[in-house]
Amino acid sequence: MPELPEVEVVRRGLAAHVVGRRISQVEVLHPRVVRRHDRGSADFVGALTGLRLTGAARRGKFLWLGTDREGVALAAHLGMSGQFRVGPPQDPPGASRPGVHERAATSRPRHARARFGLPDEDLWFIDQRTFGWAAVRPLVLDPHDVAVPDLVLSVAPDPTEAHFDLGHVAEQMRRRRTEIKRLLLDQCLVSGIGNIYADEALWHAGVHPQRRADLLATRSVEDVLEAAVAVMAASLAAGGTSFDDLYVHVNGSSGYYARDLNVYGREGLPCPRCSADIVRQRFTNRSSHFCPACQPAPGATD
DNA sequence: AATCGACCCTGCTCGC
DNA sequence: TGCGAGCAGGGTCGAT
Fold it and tell me: Which is the most buried residue in A22, A218, A248, A269, by most CB within 10 A?
C-alpha cells in the first residue's frame, strides 16, 4: 500500500508525536506482527519496555525508531495496509469516527496488532492484511556508514538520500535482462518505488512496463528514474496518495495525490496526453497500467 | 547469480 | 440474498 511518500508522511508524524517519549508499556495483539523479531512476543515486549525513542528514520518503505539503548532500534514495515496511529490512552484512534474505524468490544481500533504505551498517549500499529511487521533490531553500518537496522542492509538507498546515485542505478538496471517495471519494484536497486509510482513514472517517460532494461537506452532508463523521483516528490508535497482510509497519517488524515494520477487505476479512461484508452494488464499477481499509444510495447525487433 | 512464480493475509466489490 | 472470483498501494522464499 504505502510507497515512499506515504511512509515519509508517517515518519514525520512519528517524529512529531512519539520521538522523545519513553515506552512504558508494550502489548502484542497479533503474533504475526513480530515475526521478524528474532525471539518472540515476550522478548519483543521486554526489549522495548522502558526505552526512550530518540529519532524516526526511513529508507525506502522501511521505518525505524532509534532508542536510548545504543545500537538498538524499533524497525517496522507497513506492508500493504499497515498504519501507525496515535491517540489518547483511554480513547483509541478511530473512536471519534464510527463506521470508519470501528472499535472492537475491547475498545481498541479494528485490526490493531500492537500497542505502545507512551506517557500521554498510545501508539497503535494497525494492519488489516498483516503483511506489515515490527521488530527490535540491531543497528549496523551500511556501506555509506549510515546506521540502519540489520534487516535494511539489503535495501538500496532511496532518492531522498544524499548518496543516492541515479546514474549508478540506471547502469545497474541496464545490466539486467528483465522487464523495467520489475526492476523499478526491486528494492535492492532503488528503494521506495511501488506499483503506483512505477506505473506513473513509466507513463511520464513513455516507456512500456514490459520493455527489457538491457535493451533500453541508458537515457530512457534515466528518464524513467527521474520521472519516479519527480512523481514521488510531487506526491509527498501533496501529503501522499490515498484512495481510502487504509492509508492515513498518524493523526488519521489522508493525502490528496490520487487526483494527480495519470494511469494508475484508470483502466479504460483516456490518457491525459493522447486520449487513447488506458490499459490494465496482469503483472505478477498485480496490475500494470499504461497508455498503449504513448508507451509502445516492445516489438519483434527489440 | 539471476530470474520468476507462488505465497503470505483480510476485506471489499462485482457478477452470477 | 448468497457465494465465489477477483482485486488491493507489500516483501520473501524456493525452484529453476
Answer: A248
> Is A3 among the catalytic positions?
yes
Confidence grade of residue A247 (pLDDT, cut at 50, 70, 90): low
The span from the CA of A267 to the CA of A286, in Å, is 14
Rounded to whole angstroms, the Cα distance separating A236 from A231 reads 9
Q: Which of A2, A5, A92, A149 is catalytic?
A: A2
**Do A184 and A193 contact (CB within 8 A), yes or no?**
yes
Where does the pLDDT of residue A130 fall: very low under 50, low under 70, confident under 90, or very high at 90 and above?
very high
Q: Which A residues 138-167 have CB within 7 Å of strand C? A: 151, 154
Q: Which three cell numbers stand for residue A168?
A: 549508478
Length of chain A: 302
What is the arrangement of strands in the sheet containing A133-141, beginning at the earlier edge strand?
Answer: A53-59, A62-67, A72-77, A133-141, A147-149
> What is the pTM for the complete model shown?
0.93
User: Whole-angstrom Cα distance, residue A159 to residue A110?
Assistant: 34
What residues are paired with A76 via a beta bridge? A63, A134
- pLDDT above 70: percentage of residues in chain A: 91
Tell whether the model's pLDDT for residue A102 goes beyond 60: no
For residue A77, say whether its CB is under 7 Å from any atom of strand C.
Answer: yes
Asked if the model's pLDDT at residue A95 lies above 70, the reply is: no
Q: Which residue has the cell 549496523?
A: A140
- Answer yes or no: is pLDDT of A257 > 80: no
**What Rg do the C-alpha atoms of chain A give, in angstroms?**
20
Catalytic residue among A58, A59, A61, A137: A61
CB-CB contact of A86 with A98 (8 Å): no
Enumerate the β-bridge partners of residue A277.
A270
Nucleotides of chain C in contact with protein CB (under 7 A) are 7-12
Nucleotide nearest to A199 (CA to C1'): C9
